[in-house]
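Input (structure):
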């Protein structure tokens, strides 16, 4: 899950970014409205955490621009303005939730979880999320940092086997059996080729080679069903 944090208070922003990363999210951080708009044009985010008092524009103006352009990204306002009129204005402008500063970190995390569960159908109802990696087994889809990655059926099977046994070394024999059964005709380097493709398509550090034995995906951030 990739989140965008729009906050010009650098100390607060760094603390929130750190908190969210430890909770397993990928977090991009910007400190002004224009940078936020540019990031939102370039990348897909699951959620925006938005401060209202930004140096170049009001957070509400940023939000209303997003909604005018029919950008459906979920927005959680995190603001020191905590009058009920501010909350109503924020929600009326198109925010999905509103949390006042100072806030309780557990409450922030809980509200983010609720919003991410509300993602539109088809964009993650069966996704298992492990930090940067997300897998939807039913739809045969894999996402890296929220970007869809196309895998062949063999690559998909290999990835699932390694992820399901993360933290354990999987022997070459076992993986070969999973990926292409006991097909005597299969090229002996098929496994290496699949691993090479997965590293290229996902991340080169995701799958470790254990010399003379097999392969390993190390412990991933805790699985979340989204
Ligand atoms: Ca501010």
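Output (sequence):
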């Amino acid at each position: 899950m990739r989140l965008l944090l729009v906050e010009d208070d650098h100390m607060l922003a760094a603390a929130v970014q750190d908190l969210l990363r430890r909770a397993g999210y990928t977090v991009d951080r910007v400190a002004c409205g224009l940078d936020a708009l540019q990031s939102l044009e370039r990348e897909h985010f699951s959620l925006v955490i938005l401060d209202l008092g930004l140096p170049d524009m009001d957070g509400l103006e940023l939000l209303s621009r997003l909604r005018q352009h029919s950008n459906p990204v979920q927005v959680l306002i995190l603001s020191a303005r905590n009058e009920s009129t501010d909350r109503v204005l924020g929600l009326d402008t198109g925010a999905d939730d509103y949390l006042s500063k100072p806030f309780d970190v557990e409450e922030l995390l809980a509200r983010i979880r609720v919003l991410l569960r509300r993602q539109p159908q088809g964009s993650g109802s069966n996704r298992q999320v492990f930090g940067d990696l997300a897998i939807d087994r039913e739809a045969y889809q894999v996402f890296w940092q929220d970007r869809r990655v196309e895998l062949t059926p063999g690559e998909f099977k290999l990835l699932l086997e390694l992820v399901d046994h993360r933290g354990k070394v999987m022997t070459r024999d076992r993986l070969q059996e999973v990926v292409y059964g006991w097909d005597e005709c299969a090229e002996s380097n098929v496994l290496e080729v699949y691993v090479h493709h997965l590293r290229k398509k996902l991340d080169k550090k995701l799958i470790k080679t254990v010399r003379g034995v097999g392969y390993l995906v190390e412990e991933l951030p805790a699985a979340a069903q989204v």
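Notes: The helical segments are 10-22, 33-42, 59-68, 84-93, 105-117, 153-164, 172-180, 190-201. The pocket of calcium ion is lined by residues 8-9, 51, 53-54 (CB under 6 Å).
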